[in-house]
Design brief:
The chain has about 250 residues and is α/β, with parallel strands linked by helices. The protein has 8 helices and 7 strands, in the order βαβαβαβαβαβαααβ. The chain has helices at about 15-25, 40-50, 65-75, 100-130, 150-170, 190-195, 200-205, 215-230, and strands spanning about 5-10, 30-35, 55, 80-85, 130-135, 175-180, 240. A 7-stranded parallel β-sheet has the order 3-2-1-4-5-6-7, with helices on both faces. α2 links the parallel β2 and β3.
């Protein structure tokens, strides 16, 4: 019960890493919001968790949607202890010049602008409370960029820099900001990272991970739990690789 009586919002929580984080947080005593652009997926996760969670359809690149999710948490529980900026998107693995402008803009809206928008609504709440934790789910792509994912790599690098910059600005307010950098995982975006999901491509990707497997939602949830718990009260501005040794 490391998050007992804590209120948390997890974006992109309808599947993959976000679902794993939301469920793990609930098992550790947290109440909160399961936020996803897929309303049905968000509802399924919230039902699985039970009465301590609410589901909400939201696009994290839209200011009004961010405002709604924060207000809902405050209306229900009167505080917001933890925000996990997990929602993300990518383009298919391909040469950088073949990524369309529309794809590029969507990647930066979801992966980078969302951090800005959520900060505008969450930081004032946490400042008033005198505490809070923000966790950004970035990627090893921002540490060791991979060919074919140039603009995704760039967006995650921006997320990592934002994490450090936010951490130093908010430290005096007792608000901690950290990031997790997962390696490619068993999620709905894996086929996009690889270009195609074939045994050959899986083997190629796995050969770059010293521990020899993809990350799982449970791996990311465990790291998120630690960084968002009081056990990590002296940690801020960290970008934690959860990557099986990929970035060594």
């Amino acid at each position: 019960m490391r998050l007992k009586d804590k209120t948390a919002i997890v974006t992109g929580a309808g599947a993959g890493f976000g679902k794993g984080i939301a469920i793990r947080f609930a098992k550790e005593g947290a109440r909160g919001g399961v936020i996803d652009i897929n309303a049905e997926a968000a509802m399924e996760v919230a039902i699985q968790i039970g009465n301590s969670a609410f589901a909400m359809e939201a696009d994290v690149s839209i200011d009004g949607d961010i405002s709604r999710m924060v207000q809902e948490a405050l209306d229900r529980w009167g505080q917001l202890d933890i925000l996990v900026n997990n929602a993300g998107t990518t383009h298919r693995n391909q040469p950088m010049t073949e990524v369309t402008e529309e794809e590029y803009e969507r990647i930066f809206a979801v992966n980078v602008k969302s951090v800005y928008l959520s900060a505008r609504h969450v930081v004032p709440v946490m400042k008033k409370q005198g505490f809070g934790v923000i966790l950004n789910v970035a990627s090893t792509a921002g540490v060791r960029p991979r060919p074919g994912l140039v603009w995704y790599n760039t967006s995650k690098g921006a997320m990592m820099t934002a994490t450090k910059a936010m951490a130093i600005e908010l430290a005096g307010e007792k608000i901690r900001v950290n990031a997790i950098n997962p390696v490619a995982g068993e999620t709905g975006m894996l086929h996009l990272f690889m270009g195609e999901d074939t045994p050959e491509m899986r083997g190629k990707f796995l050969s770059t991970i010293p521990l020899g497997r993809f990350s799982m939602p449970e791996d990311i949830a465990s790291a998120a739990l630690f960084l968002c718990s009081d056990e990590a009260s002296m940690i801020t501005g960290a970008n934690l690789e959860v990557d099986g040794g990929r970035t060594i």
